[in-house]
């Protein structure tokens, strides 16, 4: 092999090696980037070989083969980039030999104690990975002030316990650590851990993911668990490069199609988990790059990449900027919810090994989802086997493919059967492509993968179908052409600088980070940027910027494969002490029992003597429904659902009763959380809700006998249940709420609408969970309560628990929107059933059916989010979301203005010559009444078209496929002018529009009435007279 090149020989280093280490095959390619636009795409050599148990052997044989074939010398190679599924496979397969037990130290002070680490993991994963956890002092507020400083002695005490258990992998997770650039609490705590536990692997959560406390922690724990295996694997990748005399950097591809140094990948292996599909997509784009160029040459066009393997087909959208479209805010792997970026991939059971079953008179022809997989060369007919596969049918249709023995399938199918099989393949591909499209326009489709031969040359929805040469090694090509990127995700004050000035600075920082990571300075561009004002937080916005560029071949300071004298420390085999620790961890981590799987079609809630006892299944469905009814606001119910689920698993009982069964002289209390959703996902609830209740009843003569939710929409829809639980106040929760949805202010509630007495919401108590309480014994009006509470909120960490004074049972029955817990339950059940039955494409229609049907609601629109604009005014997030139709019934565009919650769905008229010439460019035209599809107080709900989950206004982002529903508001709002004044268009500044109901409100069906096993519910269904609200 060639000796290490001298500095003057650096220009000779012109070749990039890309390797993809898969579960079955290891693919390799050698590229000369300067010839990428040549007919051969600069591909100097390529090879495919079987993956070996020791990756070093396979990689070495692969590179030697390509070097020999093309006459390449080691001095010609500028870099080696490797893509692998080894790390993600270890997690998916729950391989105890590759996953280490992890201890977690939370720097959270009094917060998050009710939601322990791994609380939402599958039981077997939690038992396997979580060995120990402790909550210690620390954490920041969203504005950077301290919840509390870290306590070195406290951390050292916990480290001694971790060391005694034999655990050597530790995660440190601090509240708001991703924006902690001054206190550096995680870094300081990590240094203490390393001092107390020498040789330990310590992962700071801020290095792994961004805001979202539980999801970031989940990702950090998985990352820590796999570190030991990752180091060994990365060394096995670097070893053959060193042995072959390649004096060049070794990179690993990460989830977004860019590179990590070997050292960084060994430290953050989780960033590689989804790199396989990404490499395939970027490799496909490289092979057809001439076809992607836009007419002005500025940027390529979006393309659909269809990767057909032996068993499945993976489909993803490659955006015009050259990067795959990413999933929504959260992703899931092996049942673990995380918040790092992953490509949005749709998989179907269709591949080259898919088994073909010919149709009969009563049954159609089917292909897959079962497959012979890697046994194709043994079991497929063209190889002498007895199974008819999709590959056999492709060879029969085109014997020129030169795969196997075409004579073995000759005459097996009639011409009609051949045509039918081709149509089945075509329909499957066309359906999944249509699902992944983000506009009704046709777009190019690239077919790659070893199974691409089964696909037809024309597909509906495709401007062209491309089957490029070398597509079978697209993954390796994607690795070889991977770019360099960096992300800056931070919260900044806009008090002294404008958002644009800050964005410019952050873009510059992202570009500098990308160059430092190895990109050519002139090639770096900002490819994504987003600004998110934080509600209820003065002068604070979250900025997210990502930059990317081409690899700089002239760099000599990047990581290279270590020489033999610089081997990393050897891995210590798991000893008896660690095995014992893992067994202890299983007991500690799995302290509660998983909810059993239920048959959605036959499940019945536990209702006895007109009391509904909430189960985990009920809670999950209620949570899903609450977010839908939140109309984009109220914050995600997820962390609140997890907290209450923990209480249920610990033995708590949660009871729900019908409003009809509450005595007139009862005292119906209320409690709610208030604050920014951004804070809610990071600073998990402590004891502030109960602290507020305790302080309230120091001022109130009568304690609550029942609880009711302030709003069923969003996270507060769960709070009434949590406060009522036997482990808290131990009283029943009423099946109803004060809104029937979510609204941004406390005076937009039905008791205020009825106006029988004022103020309703005084006295009030507010607690922040960190020892601070504000009480307001008296107020002049409910509006004044709201104003004072918002001021306190901004000084108390932007998240508080509130306790409201009880009303009588008689008042509750006059004022409440009834049976909304039941309504949320039915919506959640409908979404769960749609997922189970694979009918998510009709989930919006199913939700409407559960809320009264076509007379009470409708699907307003289906499409893709193509624009989001946000601004902060008086603590509330104002903005609008633009949705473009996907064709058919839903064409053109609509906009959804919002103030925390969605206000309306309004059709955007097509511009005309007269309008474009007369409208002022500086003042947008007012909306016309005839363009209004739905408006407050009716509910405008946005759900993810791909999973049925609600999407909150903070989660709106470009490219999401959504369905927009309209549901008729309760007659508590629409039955009087006062209700419309408080909750209608004028309350949100839309004075030029008037409310026109989209349907007739249907009172939600009571779960208690339907499922009570002890009583005949017929009498309960007799409508009771309602008192009209006062208009004074």
Automatic annotation (TrEMBL):
* Low complexity biased stretches: 909-925
Name the PANTHER family for this protein: 5-OXOPROLINASE RELATED (PTHR11365), HYDANTOINASE_OXOPROLINASE (PTHR11365:SF10)
Q: Which GO terms describe its molecular function?
A: hydrolase activity
Q: Which residues cross the membrane?
A: none
Q: Which domain of life is it from?
A: Eukaryota
Any idea where the Hydantoinase A/oxoprolinase domain is? 216-442
Q: Name one Pfam family in it.
A: Hydantoinase_A
From the UniProt annotation, give the residues forming the signal peptide: none
In this chain the S-Me-THD N-terminal domain maps to: 617-777
Outline the extent of the Hydantoinase/oxoprolinase N-terminal domain: 16-196
> Which taxonomic lineage is given here?
Eukaryota, Fungi, Dikarya, Ascomycota, Pezizomycotina
* Residue stretches in coiled coil: none
The record's region (Disordered) falls at 556-597, 907-926, 1012-1032
Name assigned to this protein = Hydantoin utilization protein A
State the species of origin. Answer: Lasiosphaeria miniovina
Pinpoint the S-Me-THD-like C-terminal domain residues: 781-998
């Amino acid at each position: 092999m060639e000796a290490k090149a001298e500095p003057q020989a650096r220009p000779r280093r012109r070749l990039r090696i890309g390797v993809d280490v898969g579960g079955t095959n290891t693919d390799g390619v050698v590229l000369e980037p300067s010839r990428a636009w040549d007919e051969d795409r600069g591909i100097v050599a390529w090879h495919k070989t079987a993956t070996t148990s020791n990756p070093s052997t396979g990689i070495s044989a692969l590179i030697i083969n390509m070097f020999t074939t093309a006459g390449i010398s080691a001095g010609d190679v500028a870099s080696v980039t490797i893509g692998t599924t080894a790390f993600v496979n270890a997690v998916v397969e729950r391989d105890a030999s590759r996953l280490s037990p992890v201890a977690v130290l939370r720097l959270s002070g009094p917060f998050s104690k009710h939601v322990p680490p791994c609380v939402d993991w599958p039981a077997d994963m939690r038992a396997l990975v979580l060995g120990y956890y402790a909550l210690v002092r620390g954490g920041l507020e969203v504005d950077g002030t301290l919840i509390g400083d870290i306590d070195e002695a406290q951390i050292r005490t916990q480290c001694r316990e971790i060391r005694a258990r034999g655990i050597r992998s530790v995660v440190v997770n601090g509240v708001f650590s991703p924006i902690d650039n001054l206190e550096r609490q995680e870094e300081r705590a990590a240094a203490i851990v390393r001092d107390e536990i020498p040789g330990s692997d310590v992962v700071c959560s801020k290095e792994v993911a961004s805001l979202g406390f539980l999801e970031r922690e989940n990702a950090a724990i998985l990352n820590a668990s796999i570190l030991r295996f990752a180091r060994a694997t990365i060394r096995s990748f670097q070893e053959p490069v060193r042995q072959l005399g390649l004096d060049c950097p070794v990179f690993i591809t990460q989830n977004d199609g860019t590179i990590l140094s070997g050292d960084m990948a060994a430290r953050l292996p989780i960033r590689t988990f989804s790199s396989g599909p990404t490499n395939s997509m970027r490799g496909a784009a490289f092979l057809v790059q001439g076809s992607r160029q836009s007419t002005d040459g500025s940027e390529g066009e979006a393309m659909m990449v269809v990767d057909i393997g032996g068993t499945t087909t993976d489909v993803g959208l490659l955006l015009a900027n050259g990067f795959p479209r990413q999933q929504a805010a959260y992703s899931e792997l092996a049942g673990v919810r995380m918040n790092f970026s992953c490509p949005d991939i749709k998989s179907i059971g269709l591949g080259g090994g898919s088994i073909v079953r010919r149709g009969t008179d009563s049954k159609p022809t089917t292909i897959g989802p079962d497959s012979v997989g890697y046994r194709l060369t043994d079991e497929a007919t063209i190889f002498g086997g007895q199974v008819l596969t999709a590959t056999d049918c492709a060879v029969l249709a085109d014997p020129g493919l030169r795969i196997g023995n075409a004579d073995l399938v000759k005459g097996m199918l009639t011409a009609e059967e051949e045509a039918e099989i081709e149509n089945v393949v075509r329909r499957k591909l066309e359906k999944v492509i249509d699902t992944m499209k983000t506009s009704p326009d046709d777009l190019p489709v690239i077919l790659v993968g070893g199974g691409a031969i089964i696909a037809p040359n024309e597909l509906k929805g495709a401007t062209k179908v491309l089957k490029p040469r070398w597509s079978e090694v697209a993954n390796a090509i994607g690795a070889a052409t991977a770019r360099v990127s960096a992300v800056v995700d931070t919260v900044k004050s806009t008090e002294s600088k404008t958002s644009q000035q800050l964005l410019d600075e952050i873009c510059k920082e992202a570009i500098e980070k990308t160059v430092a990571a190895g990109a050519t300075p002139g090639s770096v561009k900002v490819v994504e940027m987003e600004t998110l004002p934080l509600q209820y937080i003065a002068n604070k916005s979250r900025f997210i910027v990502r930059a990317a560029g081409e690899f700089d071949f002239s760099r000599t300071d990047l990581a290279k494969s270590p020489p033999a004298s610089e081997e990393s420390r050897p891995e210590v085999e798991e000893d008896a002490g660690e095995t014992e620790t893992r067994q202890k961890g299983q007991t500690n981590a799995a302290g509660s029992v998983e909810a059993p799987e239920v048959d959605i079609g036959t499940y019945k809630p536990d209702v006895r003597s007109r009391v509904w006892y909430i189960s985990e299944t009920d809670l999950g469905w209620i949570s899903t429904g609450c977010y839908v009814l939140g109309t984009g606001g109220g914050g995600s119910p997820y962390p609140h659902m997890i907290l209450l689920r923990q209480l249920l698993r610990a033995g708590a009982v949660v009871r729900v009763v019908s409003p009809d069964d509450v005595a007139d002289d009862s005292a119906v209390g209320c409690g709610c959380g208030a604050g920014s959703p951004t804070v809610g996902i990071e600073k998990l609830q402590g004891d502030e809700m109960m602290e507020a209740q305790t302080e309230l009843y120091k001022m109130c003569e009568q304690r609550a006998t029942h609880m009711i939710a302030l709003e069923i929409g969003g996270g507060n829809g769960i709070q009434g249940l949590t406060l009522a639980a036997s482990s808290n106040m131990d009283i029943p929760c009423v099946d109803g709420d004060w809104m029937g949805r979510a609204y941004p202010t406390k005076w937009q509630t039905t008791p205020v609408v009825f106006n029988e007495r004022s103020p309703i919401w005084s006295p009030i108590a507010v607690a922040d969970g960190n020892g601070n309480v504000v009480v307001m014994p008296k107020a002049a009006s409910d509006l004044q309560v709201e104003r004072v509470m918002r001021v306190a909120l901004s000084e108390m960490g932007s998240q508080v628990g509130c306790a409201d004074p009880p009303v009588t049972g008689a008042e509750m029955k006059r004022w409440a929107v009834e049976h909304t817990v039941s309504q949320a339950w039915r919506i959640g059940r409908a979404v769960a059933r749609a997922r189970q039955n694979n009918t998510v494409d009709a989930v919006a229609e199913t939700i409407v059916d559960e809320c009264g049907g076509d007379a009470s609601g409708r699907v307003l629109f289906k499409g893709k989010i193509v624009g989001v604009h946000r601004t902060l005014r008086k603590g509330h997030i104002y903005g609008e979301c633009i949705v473009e139709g996907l064709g058919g019934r839903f064409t053109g565009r609509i906009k959804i203005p919002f103030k925390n919650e969605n206000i309306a769905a309004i059709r955007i008229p097509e511009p005309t010559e007269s309008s474009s010439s007369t409208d002022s460019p500086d003042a947008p035209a007012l909306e016309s009444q005839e363009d209004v599809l739905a408006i407050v107080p009716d509910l405008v709900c946005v759900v993810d078209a791909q999973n049925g989950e609600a999407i909150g206004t903070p989660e709106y982002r470009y490219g999401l496929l959504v369905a927009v529903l309209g549901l008729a508001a309760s007659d508590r709002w629409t039955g009087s002018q006062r209700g419309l004044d408080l909750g209608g268009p004028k309350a949100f500044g839309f004075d030029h529009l008037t409310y026109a109901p989209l349907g007739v409100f249907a009172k939600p069906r009571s779960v208690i009435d339907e499922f009570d096993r002890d009583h005949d519910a017929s009498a309960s269904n007799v409508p009771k007279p309602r008192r009209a609200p006062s208009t004074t």
